[in-house]
Amino acid sequence: MAKEKNEKPATTLGGAPVTLFGTFPLVGQTAPDFTLVDKDLKDVSLQSFAGKRKVLNIVPSLDTAVCATSTRKFNEAAGKLNNTVVLVISADLPFAMSRFCVAEGLQNVVTLSLMRGRDFMRNYGVKIADTALSGVTARAVLVLDDKDHIIHAELVDDITHEPDYDAALAALDKSNPVVAP
Q1: Which of 10, 47, 109, 145 is the most buried (most CB within 10 A)?
Q2: How many other CB atoms are there within 10 angstroms of residue 181's CB atom?
Q3: Mean pLDDT across 164-180
Q4: 34, 106, 102: which is closest to 70 by C-alpha?
């Protein structure tokens, strides 16, 4: 598969370049639809969250420290966000993702597994093609408005790094200013 020229966002793993399949979506584009598997083994699509703002926290596996940390941090933020759902998307099985959330007391995120939705990885440009993590996703955060337009897109520069939480949350603030009670 031919690589795109310099416009394609890049990521590394511990500083070593990682090849990704697909094209990472950009701010201003409409997010590609997807169907993934929830904790009850039901197929869930992007349209299942129609009318809500969405944070897609895309991680390789919740069984790693950085993925677990980002899920905890977005869970904490999600409790304060109006009309917003945080979707944690990983290659983990739904059972493992659910166990993690129960053990951590995380109730403000929706976990979605790639077990039957592997086309998501290529459609979102996060499928790792090489390294020991081949076949899972790179770390990325996409923020969508209530009409699924991408208002923030971050392919994290190194898979071992945390995303820029402040930038993702700031995009939400800009898309829906807080209204005083």
Answers
A1: 109
A2: 3
A3: 76
A4: 106
